[in-house]
Amino acid sequence: MSAELTHEDVERILRIIDEAKHLEELDLVYGDFRLHIRRNASGERSIAPSADSPAPAAPARAPAAPAKPAARPVPAGMVAIRAPMLGTFYRSPSPGEKPFVEVGQSVKADDTVCLIEVMKLFNSIKAGVDGRIAEIRAENAALVEYNEVLILIEPAKA
Amino acid sequence: MSAATPFGRVFVANRGEIAVRVVRACEKLGIESVVAVSEADRDSLAARMATRAVCIGPARSTDSYLRAEVLVAAAKGTGCQAVHPGYGFLAERAAFSRMCAESGLVFIGPSPEAIEAMGDKITALRLAAQAGVPRVPGSERIASAEDARRSAREIGYPVLLKASAGGGGRGMRIVRSEGEIEQAIRGAAAEAQAAFGDPTLYVEKFIERARHIEIQVLGDAHGNVVHLGERECSTQRRHQKLIEEAPSPVIDRKLRAELGEAAVTLARRVRYQGAGTVEFVFDEDSRRFYFLEMNTRIQVEHPVTEMVTGHDLVAEQIRIAAGEPVSFAQDEVRVDGHAVECRINAEDAERNFAPSPGRLLAWAPPEGEGVRIDSHCYQGYLVPPFYDSLLAKVIVHASDRAAAIARMLEALDGFVINGVHTTIPFHKRVLAHDDFRGARVTTRWVEDSFLGGA
To answer: What ipTM did this prediction achieve?
Structure first.
């Protein structure tokens, strides 16, 4: 199921948050779409859509999003590939080349599934398990934080 | 402050109370802030207050707050224009400052050349001598035990062995006779190697009645250098400052002018930009002062200077980094009243200051006129075991020293903390002591006299 959330919808949600005096945090889950809104200590709101959601409406003040919630669950039976370091996430070996992996593709434990770049240093990230790529959560060329879930793999049955 | 803000977004490469302090300064200047957090600091107050927090690595600081390349990548990736390093961690690493510059980020602090010149203590001592700032009689780098013995004989015992790359009291040994020197070298060199990755030592005259006096300076890109008077930080234990005050009870107007002049001259020599502190040893017997070192960062105890001068040093740092001049001239600096700061640590003074991490079951800091609390703590906060034990700085300001001490005692009485041991009881005993009230505290008073002798 894909989410149909318009810019107006997001604005409306943010207005509700703004008007609700005692609401600090809101998690909206709609199918595979998840919206996390958190009011910070200075009373400002910021919004962190999940990486694989449709292009989100930009919040009014376009701040950098808050630390992405680490809590977004990894579904049972899935193996999460997490960022071993903060850096820039790349799906392909170099711009223009095809991605290392696509959703649905089978991989071996030793296969490289993505790169993380820190200061021009590219770190290959391996699948770690044999299986099938179930979901790619991180966005190409975006900053990923330490321990952030990048990719979900459905492990092959032994 | 002009309407234009110097930066749109500043990256805070630090944690704890100083991260909170920098976020507050950014807020005041209308700048967004992004705070680097380790996994252990995801829930930190700075993370909650900042525009954004970004997780840079695991709890251990060697995997997070000390990873220069990760911090730079995080700052760039979050669209920041400048990096505030706070104190500790990478604040005085020239390589980090350089890496920021090479990535197009403004490092909020002095040039890498100034950090390098002052970071190597032997280079710093030479520069200070050239600037007419005397140093404690001492040697150059020592190459061997024989070398050290020769220097120590020339200077006269007791002497102090110190780490060239050092600071914070690590890699230091008092040597009272020639028989002790060889073992002391081994211990100090090993400590220096562990703490700074450099075992180089030098020898210095040991002053029996020494006070720690330091001068706050600010320099800018336009060649202005001003000083904001002194701080007295003689109440120390194992070279760690515990109580700081401004002004010093033993420095008169004439000496203040001399110290200030010496600090400004030195800062000018390295074209110093930003906030820095020139530290001196003051020999109470001869009333002479000697250059100790220059710290090229904002210091923990900067609030006492802010309280008596009314200037916001962290905001000045940010504006200076953006190319603005220091916002006031030397003759506009006034020292008004007296300020005292107590560092409240999560430590048990009864058990040799053993660290006491844990959850803050109750946290109610005092409030009131002339009372300021700089802290990252809140009720329910888990004081992590990975970092230093500073919980809060209690700073008071009053018309004179006696009134400031009274106000501090009142503030500490009203500070409710449960869940961890704190150094509040220790501070209360020191503040009530005749030696402290009578301004007779030297840098070894806490250990040698107050805690009952070594």
So the answer is: 0.74
